[in-house]
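Lecture notes, unit on protein representations.

Consider one protein chain, 259 amino acids long.
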Amino acid sequence: MRGSLLVSALVLLSASGVARGQASADEPRFPFRDVAAEAGITFEQSSAPEKKFILESMPGGLALIDFDDDGLPDVYFVNSLTVETAASPRSARSALYHNRGGLRFVDVTEASGIAYPGWGMGACVADYDGDGRQDLYVTTVGRDRLYRNLGGRSGDSGRPAFEDVTDAAGIVAGGWSTGCGFADYDRDGDLDLFVSRYVEVDLERLPEFGKGKFCVFRGIEVQCGPRGLPGTGDLLFRNDGKGRFEEVGKAAGVSDPEE
């Protein structure tokens, strides 16, 4: 599965200006051309072709982040594992592409510190600590990651562009996290973090494809879930303004495990 289609469209639109109606009356209003390869974006999403498990039916997403503060949006692709490779996080490499301008991107993943977040699902971007640099949160199956932006370009001075501060920040988000977003929900001037989660899954006890009450649809064997699988509560992490977060989802009334 190609992981670069969306960014191809974004890059083309921003560079060409056709969205402002520059096409003639006889041409499509939104002509698109895949420029991923010529722009240097070669990322491909890992996947299990059979997709026998619900975990394998949802690939990772992407985030636009100006990680080096040069005014150009860089692109971070989140990669996913499979049930077979779940115990080997390094078998699926996420990718960070540095935007050099002029439709040119360079893969700077290995020096970035964000190549292997685990079984990635999604990502969101914000300056959570107020230092003027965009930080990154990655949702996963198992253990989410909060990456603090260290400043500078990836690999400068022999240091990565990001550091994993998940434990130091008090972020505890297990299970199957899907989406996320930063917002100052309590209006105290600090960005808090909301994490949406999906259903409960146990990699050691996954329902067998086509077996069981909710794995057959109109007589056809199908992938199991989400029907028949219990929901998981969402999470809300309150930012204390000092680099630490406290999970307050239930107290704030946004956990909603059955929604």
